[in-house]
Known about the structure:
The structure is a homodimer. By secondary structure, chain A is an alpha/beta fold. Chain A has a single domain, classed as Rossmann fold. Helix content of chain A is about 30%, strand content about 20%. The first copy, chain A, has 6 helices and 11 strands. Chain A has helices at about 15-25, 80-90, 100-110, 155-165, 170-175, 195-205, and strands at about 1-5, 30-35, 40, 50, 55, 65, 95-100, 115, 135, 140, 145-150. In chain A, strands 5-2-1-6-7-11-10 form a 7-stranded mixed sheet, sandwiched between helices. In chain A, strands 3-4 form a two-stranded antiparallel ribbon. Chain A has a two-stranded parallel ribbon with strand order 8-9. The interface between A and B is large, with 61 and 61 residues.
Amino acid sequence: MQIAFLLYPGFTALDAIGPFDTLSRLPGAETVLVAERPGPVRNESDTLGLVAEAALTEVTRPDIVVVPGGADTSGVAKPGAVQEWLRAVDATSTWTTSVCTGSLILGAAGLLKGRRATSHWLALETLASFGAEPTGERVVIDGKYVTAAGVSSGIDMGLTLLGRIAGDRTAQSVQLLIEYDPQPPYDAGSPEKAPADIVAEWRATM
Amino acid sequence: MQIAFLLYPGFTALDAIGPFDTLSRLPGAETVLVAERPGPVRNESDTLGLVAEAALTEVTRPDIVVVPGGADTSGVAKPGAVQEWLRAVDATSTWTTSVCTGSLILGAAGLLKGRRATSHWLALETLASFGAEPTGERVVIDGKYVTAAGVSSGIDMGLTLLGRIAGDRTAQSVQLLIEYDPQPPYDAGSPEKAPADIVAEWRATM
C-alpha cells in the first residue's frame, strides 16, 4: 500500500501533515512525498520547506493519492505535469483524496465531474465550475474520491479513511496515539459558527 | 515577534505543524525552523524531512519557543547543544511551549520544575521525574510555560496562545481560516474515551 502526498510550491503544511500523521500509521503502508522535482518544496507563505522524496515520474501507481490545498492553487490547477500526473495515477488509485483547496486541483484535472465534493469554505462554490456538486460537509466520500474541508479537516479525513481501509479499531488506535480529542478554545471553526464580521472579512479578501 | 520551532531527528511532524499553521498566522510574526544544523531534519518514522532554516547558534532571542515531541526524545533530552540552547533562549522568551513529549525535553532542561505541565498521555507520569506536576489537561499554562498533550493538541495550543497574545478575535479568525471545526469519526482520542483494550495495548508498548 503506497500513499503519495503531492507537494507543490504554495501548499499549506497542515493540509499535508494532518493526513500524513494519520494515514502513515496504517500498518504496512509506505508513504512518499512527491513533487514535480525532488527536494524542498516551499509552503504558501514561503516560511517552510518540506522535502519531496520523489519526482512525479517516479511515482506511477500509488494506492492512495493525497492532494493538499494552498492559498493559491492556480499554478497547479492549470494544464501541466501535475495535472497529467493526477489523471494518470487516478486511473489506478484505490482512493484519490484532497484537503482544502486541493479539491480545486482535482477538479481542474477533471476528476470530480458529477461527484459530491467539498473544499475550504471560501472555495466551496468554485467546485461547481469543475462539474462537481459542492457539499458543505467536513469529509465527503463519493466512490473512491474523498475530499475534506479546510486545512485542519485533513485529520478527520485521515481517520475516516483509516476506518474504511483497516477498520474502526485501527482508526481508533491511531486517534488515541495522536491524542485527537479536540478542545478548541473557541467555537469559530466554520462560517456558520464564527462571528459574522470575521466571516465577512475573510470573504472580502477573496 | 519571532517564533522558533525546534526540530531534531525523530520529531513528530504534526506536533510541529499544528502550532506552526496556527501561530505563524499571527500578524507580524516571523517564524524560524531551527535545528542543531540547518537542512532537512527527519521525523520519527524517517519518512519525512522538514527543512531547518537556521542553526541553534543563529537563533538567540526568539519570543516564542515551540518544542515538538517525538516517539523517542532521549537523544535531545540529554545534556548537549539542544538542552543548552533551550535554557539560553528560555532566559529571554515570552513563551516557552511544547507539544506532546516535547515537555519531556523542556523538563530535562530543568525548565518545568514546580510547574503544572502536560504531555502525551503515555508520557504524562514521566514529567514528575523532572519536578513538574503532571496535569491531564489538553493545554496547560503555568506562567510563561505552555505545554500541550499528544500530537494533535498543538492546534488547540496554538489557538489558545494566539488568543492570549493577540486577543480572541485574531484567534477566532485563524480558527475559521484553518476551518478548525473538528468532527472526529470516532470518540477515542483520550485514554478515558478509547476502548480499554486499545489503551492497554498502547500501554504495553511502553
